[in-house]
Amino acid sequence: MQLFIRHRLQDKLVLPLNYQHILQAIIYKNLNLGAEYSKFLHDNGFPYEKRKFKLFTFSLLQGKYEICEHKIIFRNEVFFEVRSPDIFMMNLLAEGIARNGIAYGDRHITDVDVNLDDATIETDELYVKMLTPISVYSTDRETGKTYFYNPSEDEFSQLVKDNFVRKYIACYGVEPESSIAIEPAYVSVKDKYVTKYKNFYISGWFGEYYLYGQRKYLDFLYQTGLGSKNSQGFGMFSVLKQER
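Request: output the structure for the sequence above.
Response:
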């Protein structure tokens, strides 16, 4: 399910370049109509072994902007999208935003348009463009160092597959019948993206990719995102072409 959030700006909106944590806070705050659910999602989520998945993702802010002195400045109108396979969460979020508005830190916006949609994937092969970067990584147990993979490395596609399996089991409690595959179609060095999220640097990749798998698994990824860090604003894609 998808939630589209849009509002106009009476005055310019000034945010740090790394503003994903602000959008994440908007989501959690507006789930407070269901206090128990909000606490469950924030503290626990959907567990798989030692990992906890939130099973939602969100886009960057869209609209006319300029960058000045390490700030991003939006004018006139902005919108962003949230996706999740959790219908209860999405309805709760839509109701919360419609009732309370949204707050970018201390900037409160009350007049917000919210629209729910239920677009689904209907084929087993997609050509997609990343709206937010794909991030996959591994951490050395001895040194604690984290290495982020790029799409040209074999580990990149394997980690995307592994992440899909873990998220699917966390969501539904059963293993998928088959895996998925991802293949870079058009990715350049300009597609590399690095951001700082709560004092941690995260690296990911925009670009265009082919996705293969059963329709229901590609639809699951459309709702949850590709790769890791989905609930921190990574892994959302748009569909450029659906193959049959």
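The longest strand covers residues 2-8.
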